[in-house]
Amino acid sequence: MTSQFKYGVSLYSYTDDLGTVMTLDDAFDHVADTGSTGIEILGEASVPNYPEPPAAWIDHWFAQLDRYKLEPTNFASWVDTRIQIDRNMSAEEGAAQIAQDLRLAHRLGFQFVRPKFGVIDGELTPDPIWEPAVERNLDLAHELSLAILPEIHSPTPIRHPVTDAYIAFIERTGTKNFGLLIDTGIFQDRPIDAWGGGATEEIKKGAASFLNGINVPVEHLDDVIRYVGFIQAKFHNIDENLHDHNIPWDRIVPALKRLGYTGYLSSEYEGARDPWVAIEQVRRQHALIRKLEGEWDAANGRARHA
Amino acid sequence: MLERSHIQSTGFRNTGPDSARTGFEFRIRQANYRSSRLSLIEGVDITVDGILYPAEHNLFRLRDKTYSQADMAAATDARLYVGEYFTVVVPRSGGLEPGVHLVASAIRYRHPYFPPEFQPVVVRDERHATIIMR
Questions:
Q1: Rounded to a whole number, what is the distance in Å from the CA of B106 to chain A's nearest CA?
Q2: Is residue B73 part of a domain?
Q3: Residue A122: closest CA among chain B residues belongs to which residue?
Q4: How far is the alpha carbon of B56 from chain A, nearest alpha carbon, in Å?
């Protein structure tokens, strides 16, 4: 029986390198060499001339996937609800944005689409159009075999009205094409010492939770694991002793193993943005998580799989 | 590929007729990790050698099209992509003297997924850059 995590990398990890010191082809090489089987992209960042990539680029995309033996995992999407300074998107516009990304993600072979909705408050409550905008796309997602997964992201914890509303939507519609994406930044339990989130000093001063972490107990995963389709393995700094300074992998990995999670852990490095640092940081994270998974398997009598 | 700094060395030059310069321009790479609809960029303030050139007077050129601040606010479909630069066009009678200048940019990005109190986010860069010819 195979009960292993799947390993992947989000190209978000290489922010600022892509376009300055790294091409998409370079990124394929770095991702594949971690031993990953999955590659996650940011649609409008990674796809040239988004939302209408040139046909030659699509051919090259599939050739690279084949060459590096990678499968497309999650396609990150944005629903820019406050699209103009004095005007918010309508539900129809939000639905059109999601439909566009579902179609493009499908064309590129993806399995998941993460819509990042605009929010209306400091607790990251999504703009209320999220619900009708998603609901109008459930049939399309089903037809394209895609799951729409909004993320549970710090400072929003698992036990929170935002999460409850997503789960109520799943229960009400009975859909299999909508679920949750967990960003492991919610488990951060020590202050960030190297942040690459692109935010300014003003934000860091004004949003202590961004820096200090909201320290969600890993046991809270029990409540929602059945809805979790994908995990973005957010991290900021892993040192040369494979010690993560902020994210408690020694608690997260056993919790996910105990719950039988066999989906993706897709690296999302968000630390120092000096050139090329991300390449090594992502490798350290893979070494660390694989080590912890191996230890759990050994202690629990599970055979390791090559 | 582009320089790591947001402000690029290449492209810094005076604008307008040789005998009557009307300003200067330079390139700034997309400083966000995703593409930006132009309607999400609320303006770009420029400071050169301590003199502020506020966003409302500057123009924003992307590929072959030039936008005023009001044009950008309406441009919900045009996108500035990652790995791409725009050119900010700044009015200044006579342009800048040839030589090295201290140049700063402040891009006001609106991120709808950020709490409203953190909109817009001001992303800054500052560096020395060189005008070669008058």
A1: 11
A2: yes
A3: B115
A4: 15
Among A44, A46, A275, whose Cβ lies nearest the Cβ of B79? A44
Type of residue at A123: E
What does the pLDDT profile of chain A (306 residues) look like in tens digits? Answer: 447 999 999 999 999 999 999 999 999 999 999 999 999 999 999 999 999 999 999 999 999 999 999 999 999 999 999 999 999 999 999 999 999 999 999 999 999 999 999 999 988 999 999 999 999 999 999 999 999 999 999 999 999 999 999 999 999 999 999 999 999 999 999 999 877 776 666 666 666 667 889 999 999 999 999 999 999 999 999 999 999 999 999 999 999 999 999 999 999 999 999 999 999 999 999 999 999 999 999 999 865 554
Binary contact (A44, B113; C-beta < 8 A): no
- Tokens 């998941």 — which residue? A112
State which residues form the domain around B53: 13-131
- B98/chain A closest Cα distance in angstroms: 27
In a domain, B4, yes or no: no
Q: What ipTM is given for this predicted complex?
A: 0.95
> Is residue B121 within 8 angstroms of chain A, CB to CB?
yes
Give B111-134 as a DSSP string: -TTS-GGG-SEEEEEEEEEEE---
Tell which residue, A148, A58, A49, A145, has the closest CA to residue A94. A148
Domain range A6-299, CATH class: alpha beta
Strands B79-80 and B36-37: antiparallel
Q: Can you give the residue ranges of every domain in chain A?
A: 6-299
Pairing of strands A228-235, A180-183: parallel
